[in-house]
Amino acid sequence: MRKERKLWWSFILVVAISFSVLLYYGYEIYQVSPPVPEQVVDTQGNVLFTGQEIKDGQNVWQSIGGQEVGTIWGHGAYVAPDWTADWLHREAEHMLNSYSQSEFQKNYSSLNDEDQAKLQIRLKKSIRKNTFNEQTKILTIDTDRVNAITALSSYYTGLFTDDPQFDQLRKDYAIPKNAIKDADRLQKMNAFFFWATWATVTERPGESVSYTHNWPNEKLVGNEMTMDLLAWSGVSIILLIFCVGALVLWQVKSGEEEELLYPAQDPLLRQGITPSMRLTKKYFWIVSLLMLVQVGLGIVTAHYGVEGDGLYGIPLDQFLPYAVTRTWHTQLAIFWIATAWLATGLYIAPAVGGKDPKFQCFGVNFLFIALLIIVAGSMIGQWFGVMQKLDLVQNFWFGHQGYEYVDLGRFWQLFLFVGLFVWLALMVRPLIPVLKQGGAEKNLIIMFLISCSAIALFYGAGLMWGRQTNLAIAEYWRWWVVHLWVEGFFEVFATVVMAFLFVRLGLLKPKAATASVLFSTIIFLSGGILGTFHHLYFSGTPTAVMALGATFSALEVVPLTIIGFEAYHNYKLSKSTKWLQDYKWPIYYLISVAFWNFLGAGVFGFIINPPIALYYVQGLNTTPLHGHTALFGVYGMLGIGLMLFVLRSLYREVQWNERILKIGFWSLNIGLLGMALLSLLPVGIWQAIASIEHGMWYARSAELMQQPFMVFLKWMRTPGDVVFAIGVLACAWFVFDLTLKNKIKN
Questions:
Q1: Is the pLDDT confidence value at 576 over 70?
Q2: Is residue 640 part of a domain?
């Protein structure tokens, strides 16, 4: 009991201290985010852009898909360029050519090294100087930069409309003709592109680095790595090695867990099935359907990387453009994984108490209908938004918010937020009588409810930005959702649920399970909460964010280094007694979660976490490498594993189709490994080398990405994708075959 109390206090302190720091630096980000000027003027005082046009331009960018059409500050999709890196390089070249023509009467590229260096120094002094007046809120720019803006505005207008000279480039970028149909909207989006790029090169007041800490790397304007990048990268690696050693030592000293006398029969056979528990099976139908659609959209989205205007000659981009397919692909991944986990919770809560509270069945059915409305409504709204059929206000509320993983309109966000609290109520009500009774499982149930509450509450971070909130501030809150909600508290929920299942199966003692869950949660959240900052190194934040992010994101990797112990433990459980063979495949999915936790979240995650690494690879294919192997490899596999645990309990006496389960399991794992190693990893490495040598603009350019061998590497996703798709089909087939052919028995 004393040990348990210490763990509870440690958990409370970790959460309290971490969130205090996270909120404090959130306040700092509000204070030091790149300012949006009220006016951008030339040296004669002529107004080029207003602050309102910049804000409206951000909304225009969001309406066409935002982070699903290229990236801004490195965040978003990977077929089109990073618009800030692209604008910055083109602006620098235009200004250098202007200087060269004025002084030498020839293009910059024709000059000798000495003259080029001379003009580069002149450019750096001009473009890096912060000419924003804090008192008047006016940004003044010189004539050469005004001319560059005029030329670039014309360039992007041609690209986003139907200028024939951009046909091939639009195809390379998977941008349909007339992606923006209104000239006024184009002008405003150009204003936003200028402002976002201005923040990447203009030095902060009193400092020698830009608002985005010199990201993207661009030698022409002096955007190069700093000593802070090197120093904090070194700190993160040293801390990682030290903490790995300490954790391994703790693991060795803790020894093996005490031996249990495993039950002779499956304890769940004696557990009753309440009416609401039966209703969860339809949630797994939705999980299977959404998984099929999501993977199908993923194949189409990947194909846009090699045929940017359609699908094998079909002009798909005219009615289902890349921005839509990628939005739906990423959003449905969150939807089906979350549905699997939430349905598991709906099953476990009444299973613990042994009966349904009043209106529990109504609540489960109501939540199911709400889920269908949110999924369908948000997807339809996003299509209308990207197809430019909504005004900017309508788009914010019902269309496409433009932020990756939280693309759904504000109305649908609110709807989902309310739905999560309905789910929380359905979790709490059956467990209140159990808590009142006390017992060995009490602390584990409390931890379960804490994780459920966090899932409901922390999605609310997605409501903290408004329609025209500064991009740096919106990014801060977006990562609360993506990192803390998706990667953080769902991870805690999963840890508790797995421990609870093993307790119910008689494979763990409640006291040991509670201690294990608390310790795992403390270790994970110690790095996970403040590790959120590693997404914000170059998003208009102060240097302290880099220091904290580098330090604590290294701690996120520490527990993953001993993940083999977890995998071996789960494997031993599957062999411990004969009746556990019925749970072979759910346990095998937990073993695969351990593998992908190590490779996808650990190895592939850490290679992009240190500041010096991310400086060169943010926004390259090293990010989807980590994203695919961590999101599906960890959370997707876990969702399938939890679903199979529930189905095994619901259909207790049914002989499972072992063959189809085997095909599904191995196809998913081999296919995911194939797409990672045959395509995403080599493409990412090639881009990283190009970024280091030439700059981020080149690593994302059509010039590099359309080279024959690069296209070949993109095609090499096909073998892995096909094998993976077979696995998804097998899983869906198993679920429908099991649930439609068999009845649930008490």
A1: no
A2: no
